[in-house]
Amino acid sequence: MTGKKKGKLTKVLDYLKHEDPFSKGVAFCPGCGLELLLRFIPQVLGNDIVITGTPSCSAPVLLGQNNQSWHTLSYFGTLMTGAAANATGLARYYRKAGIKNTVVCFNGDGTAADIGFGNLSGAAERNEPFIYICYDNEGYMNTGVQKSATTPYGASTTTTPFGTASKGKNLRRMNLALKMAMHKIPYAATATLSDLGDLAKKLLKAKEAKERGFAFLHVFAPCTTGWGYAPENTIEVCRRAVKTNYFPLWEAINGKIRMTKTVKKPKPVSTYTELMKKFAHLNEADLQILQDDVDYEYCMLGGLSTLEAECHIPESVED
Amino acid sequence: MSPNKFFKHEGPWSDANDPLMCSDTGDWRTKRPVVDKDTCIFCGFCAIYCPIQVMEMVENSHFTPDLAFCKGCGICAKECPKNAISMIAEGDF
Fold first, then answer.
1. What is the pTM of this model?
2. CA spacing 20 to 30 A to B18: which of A73, A145, A239, B65?
């Protein structure tokens, strides 16, 4: 050991204050972004959280099989149409009973953006005191890679395949996190797995904001099977998504948007799309549409954050 | 591990008071991460990015994977800033 050049131990390890409640061998694909996120959340927030979730890739592990469990967290399984309504009930029960804990509604983008969006919006509007985490893998990966509202333009899925009649998804993706920030909830943020320090900070901020009401986190979690990239590239995909401004990192407190990471020289979106098979068929014109969409969204976010900086935003009234 | 705190019984399935389920995920591995102890600068990036969280600290000097559960995805080798981890095919062992 003598004379060895030592680096600094990463600060992210300081955020991992609690033990990992999951058993070691868990049935997720090798290189799964969801598994990293799922093990990360209780290590940061503590093991005294109640997770409620829906049928998705997370459900087989969170729900367990054959009267045994994969973890020691409290989990409540529910339907996709009523995920946020279910979390509302749990959060209200604990508030009424005077039990201090954190209810985490953990869903994929299919529930958050498509099927359960109605009651997500409703819970946000009522300012219910829980954390809603959407892990965004841009499609219904568990059921066989169908497209969802957050699937980007041109992506090939089983419902929007590449062929003679179809060239991948023909509509640009919707910006779920911005939509939630527009509810003017106490806390809304985007995060990704390449910047775990940022993710941990946002999780802790969400836990704090939950005392004032609804907190929403949109986490970009790539899917190695559905997107068609090598398992070792999971973190690289996240990193390039941030560096190309494909997935900008920001937070909104009471609707006021602030960029948490600004990229000085954003790279072209092709450096991101070249990594995976779902974009392999894109030609120059299609790539340009995707690039324009990325630029448009980033421009809109930047505009909002600079314009809002000049305005006085009223504090949300507590219920 | 701390026991499940809020639900005394979790319904007909998934009772966390029973022993936890655990798959033999080390069996899935096609490539094995091998850490070069001398090149390792003990930064901890492999440990935080490992989806299964199996990179274990050894005496404040380096990290080593728990091969009973490592799925061999290769994220640790890819994210290592010093390229101290190499992925070697299981057949070579």
1. 0.92
2. B65
